[in-house]
């Protein structure tokens, strides 16, 4: 076991990471959030729950995920590049870690149904999968724009028995899918668990989802020790809500490694936002001069989100992690670069991390970079086919 | 208990005189909305709730979502709406309904001052639960504004007195599990929660969310001190303008007066 990291410890009793986080939800949802907090606290301290979850992660999701060294791309960029292969998990992304934890918890709480939001569809597919496994009813809300650009994942969810509802309000992307999932939860809270897909939302979600993804960082830390006998110089992940980044950061936050969360230029909550409150949390948020939430624009549906998890806002505010941006053009280039040099098609989300590494490599010559390859790019092939003509 | 809250004082006086309280809601910034407010005021409203449109209204159903979007598309901001409030000249207390980021962004004290200087009496903030309400409530108290707290059907018994203790003006008793919008019948939770609240507080208890017509308003008021009429008013305003609001508010007013 790694020692408990001190910078990423438990939030305050009001769910704060520094001045970020909290529980800004309608009164109707307060008791449910309190119940969830109590249930998670109790389950997470229960060896039986932990053993059962570990067993499912191993035998169903395929953990531990491997560490792959990118020899060609590394040599080309003048760095040593290691990938944490979350793309090889069952359902093709890191999202499965969180949903297996949450659905196991939902069953323990006696819930019969889960609702989830999804952007790229990865969390929706993972939720539909876990619901099928656990015998729970599942409804997934997805922005109408994303339903169109991620048609394959929509069909996958339906195959898995989930009910997928296209959301036509607002920007018709991830932000609006979260709104609609919350509206559903307000009406169904007694029977339903909201299976939130990232380290965002009201307390206890940012903390709970981080704990379910801590396995990424724990494994990666041990694998780096074994492979390079040290921690990497830099740990890089893409950031929308920020769950895969939090997961891998958790293993290195108390080491000397630089932590880099790469945001899309069109959805840079930390880079372009100010503290605000939406979706239950106080965090950096892209908003106008009156506090209206701005629409994010990214080639990647999974990062098309104007906010960010509150712990990222905290890590940014204390200077522990950096949150640079990359453009869609850089991402499209990086997507192809990784495919051609390594034979790995990354999710468009992860291509953000590749793009940053590729751009910044001249300043990191000879360094070891660990990147969280949080999802595979199969879902993006159709979209790339259109983009590349 | 600070006994000097002017909204509560006024509503208690009406209630104690045997009147059921009627609180129509209208989304600010819709084209012609001020005429809708005047029509509501002229036809028997006791308080009028003005919605400040927000990009992400998680407690609102389709009708108020659409109204918010239309108002935003028309260029409405809190500043333009409050500017129009100054010109309203109605003799009914006005409160705003706004999501918390609308307050958080300018800052608690600045926003409270904006409301107070426009002649607003109070605020309803549906995504600001009791535990997070301290800084806003303090600023509102200092500015002489009533913060109307919401109580939900999911609240356990020990939570309701805490919510009521912080409530100023009235307690907004959420009528059902769900978002704003019209329903074919009044949910059983509407009267059940109002009854639980009446047992622990003397602050006026007004039921909102899912009270959809005059008949349901009368039903809710067999227990509660009054009702909010949200989606039913907004829908009529968007379809028939201020006249539709005036006729509907008059109809509910008459039903409440008869029903007692």
Main features:
heterodimer; A: 389 residues; alpha/beta; Rossmann fold; 2 domains; seven-stranded mixed sheet; four-stranded antiparallel sheet; 15 helices; 44% helix; B: 260 residues; TIM Barrel; nine-stranded parallel sheet; 47% helix; globular
Please render the helix and strand layout as text.
The complex is a heterodimer of chains A (389) and B (260).
Chain A: E1 16-17, E2 20-24, H1 30-44, H2 47-59, E3 67-69, H3 71-77, E4 80-85, H4 95-108, E5 113-118, H5 122-134, E6 137-143, H6 144-149, H7 151-159, E7 163-167, H8 174-188, E8 192-194, H9 205-228, E9 234-238, H10 243-249, E10 258-264, H11 269-272, E11 274-278, E12 280-285, H12 310-317, E13 321-322, E14 325-326, H13 328-342, H14 348-360, E15 368-373, H15 381-388
Chain B: H1 6-16, E1 21-27, H2 33-42, E2 48-51, H3 62-73, H4 78-86, E3 94-97, H5 100-104, H6 108-117, E4 122-124, H7 134-142, E5 146-148, E6 150-151, H8 160-166, E7 171-174, H9 188-200, E8 205-208, H10 214-220, E9 226-229, H11 231-259
Parallel strand pairs in B: 1-2, 1-9, 2-3, 3-4, 4-5, 6-7, 7-8, 8-9
Helix pairs in contact in B: 2-11, 6-7, 10-11
Mean pLDDT of chain A: 96
The CATH superfamily title of chain B: Aldolase class I
Which chain pair has the greatest contact? Answer: A-B, 39 and 41 residues
Number of domains of chain A: 2
Tell me what portion of residues of chain B adopts beta-strand conformation: 5-15%
Largest sheet of chain A: 7 strands, mixed
Helix content estimate of chain A: 40-55%
Radius of gyration of chain B: 16 Å
Shape of chain A: globular
Total count of helical runs of at least 4 residues of chain A: 15
Name the structural class of chain A.
alpha/beta
Proportion in β-strands of chain A: 15-25%
Query: Largest beta sheet of chain B: what is the strand line-up?
Result: 5-4-3-2-1-9-8-7-6
Which architecture of chain B would the CATH scheme give at its second level?
Alpha-Beta Barrel
Catalogue the unreliable spans of chain A: none
The count of DSSP E runs of length 2 or more, i.e. the number of strands of chain A, is 15
This entry's quaternary arrangement is heterodimer
Give the fraction of residues assigned to helices of chain B.
Answer: 40-55%
Q: In sequence order, what are the helices and strands of chain A, one letter per element?
A: EEHHEHEHEHEHHEHEHEHEHEEHEEHHEH
Average pLDDT rating of chain B: 96
Number of strands of chain B: 9
